[in-house]
């Protein structure tokens, strides 16, 4: 079967179209005929060898949508990757049916990115009605969903940050009350001004680096900062526990992968997100769809932040 295979660690140049053996499912597993595969920032890290998930050669890809042997259209997380291919092995118990009216790009946006946005707000930040929420990188896959979910979960004011005017306009169109630049310099002042002069209750951040102390400066007493990535590549920012205690701030981190085995983490939130989408209450941003053969360009565009919404490969 056709697939994208990585034979050595490196940048986008290591992604190659190849003929590989068809995977074979074991007990409790099933084979999905893949119609589209999601592309995530974690896939870039894995290609570089920075994700600690085995040596080459391997087929990347942690999200697929397609048909199971019964003909149902499902979304699933392939076992040990393998999504950038015509067929992928998944756990039979971890396939979720896609409702009518939800297209491939939308369904894929709700897997890693939708579930992450849901848990950032519900599980980590424990959002309460009326609270103000800042979503950094608000035009991205997680960010564009977090903006909408924050509004749906009762946030009093939703503030988006993004790097360009077009991306800020997109965040406003998705339901943010205000959108400002996300550069760490002057961040706290811009965010407080967007929150009508007040500090904010929650900040969701995937940038890392200098964005973290800037976000802490913007928080109100008992505010919560949830970090879920380090796209800045600046390394880990130090956090002073004493400074946190002065305003009773909380810093937490979320990573979907280690949480997936826990009860209530996967099927129930995903079914809720799919239903919200089918009903029109949630609009996942199905952004750039690339041919399987163009996986290298998809990686290049994502690394250069030229993409918006969910990036995926049409298989």
Describe the protein in words.
The chain folds into two domains: 2-97 and 285-314, Alpha-Beta Complex (Quinone Oxidoreductase, Chain A, domain 1); 113-257, Quinone Oxidoreductase, Chain A, domain 1 (Alpha-Beta Complex). It is built from ten helices and 15 strands. The protein has helices at 41-48, 104-124, 141-152, 165-173, 187-194, 211-218, 241-246, 256-259, 267-278, 295-303, and strands spanning 2-6, 15-19, 29-39, 64-67, 73-76, 87-91, 96-97, 132-135, 157-162, 178-181, 200-205, 219-227, 250-253, 286-291, 310-314. Strands 3, 4, 5, 6, 7, 14 and 15 form a seven-stranded mixed beta sheet that branches. Strands 10-9-8-11-12-13 form a six-stranded parallel beta sheet, sandwiched between helices. Helix 2 crosses helix 3 (141-152), helix 2 crosses helix 9 (267-278) and helix 5 (187-194) packs across helix 6. Strand 14 (286-291), helix 10 and strand 15 (310-314) form a beta-alpha-beta unit. It is an alpha/beta fold and 315 residues long. The longest helix is centred in the middle third of the chain and has 21 residues, at 104-124. The mean pLDDT is 93. The termini are close together. It is globular and about 60 Å long.
Give the helices and strands, then pairings.
Elements: E1 2-6, E2 15-19, E3 29-39, H1 41-48, E4 64-67, E5 73-76, E6 87-91, E7 96-97, H2 104-124, E8 132-135, H3 141-152, E9 157-162, H4 165-173, E10 178-181, H5 187-194, E11 200-205, H6 211-218, E12 219-227, H7 241-246, E13 250-253, H8 256-259, H9 267-278, E14 286-291, H10 295-303, E15 310-314
Parallel strand pairs: 8-9, 8-11, 9-10, 11-12, 12-13, 14-15
Antiparallel strand pairs: 1-2, 3-4, 3-6, 3-15, 4-5, 5-7
Helix pairs in contact: 2-3, 2-9, 5-6
């Amino acid at each position: 079967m056709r697939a994208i295979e990585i034979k050595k660690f490196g940048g986008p140049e290591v992604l190659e179209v190849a003929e590989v053996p068809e995977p074979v499912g074991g007990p409790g597993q099933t084979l999905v005929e893949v119609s589209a595969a999601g592309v995530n920032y974690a896939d870039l890290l894995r290609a570089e060898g920075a994700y600690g998930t085995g040596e080459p050669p391997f087929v990347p890809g942690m999200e697929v949508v397609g048909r199971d042997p019964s003909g149902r259209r499902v979304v699933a997380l392939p076992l040990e990757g393998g999504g950038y291919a015509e067929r992928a092995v998944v756990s039979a118990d971890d396939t979720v049916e896609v409702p009518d009216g939800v297209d491939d790009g939308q369904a894929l946006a709700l897997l890693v990115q939708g579930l992450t946005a849901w848990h950032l707000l519900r599980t980590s930040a424990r959002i309460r009605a009326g609270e103000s929420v800042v979503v950094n990188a608000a035009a991205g896959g997680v960010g564009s969903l977090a903006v909408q979910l924050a509004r749906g979960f009762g946030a009093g004011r939703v503030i988006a940050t993004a790097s360009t005017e077009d991306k800020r306009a997109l965040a406003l169109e998705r339901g943010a009350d205000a959108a400002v630049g996300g550069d760490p310099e002057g961040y706290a002042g811009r965010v407080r001004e967007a929150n009508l002069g007040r500090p904010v209750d929650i900040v969701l951040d995937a940038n890392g680096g200098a964005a973290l102390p800037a976000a802490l400066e913007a928080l109100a007493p008992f505010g919560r900062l949830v970090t879920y990535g380090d796209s800045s590549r600046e390394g880990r920012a130090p956090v002073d526990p004493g400074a946190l205690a002065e305003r009773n701030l909380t810093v937490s981190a979320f990573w979907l992968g280690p949480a997936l085995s826990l009860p209530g983490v996967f099927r129930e939130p995903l079914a809720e997100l799919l239903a919200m989408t089918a009903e029109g209450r949630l609009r996942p941003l199905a952004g750039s769809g690339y041919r399987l053969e163009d996986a290298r360009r998809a990686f290049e565009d994502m690394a250069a932040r030229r993409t918006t919404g969910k990036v995926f490969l049409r298989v």
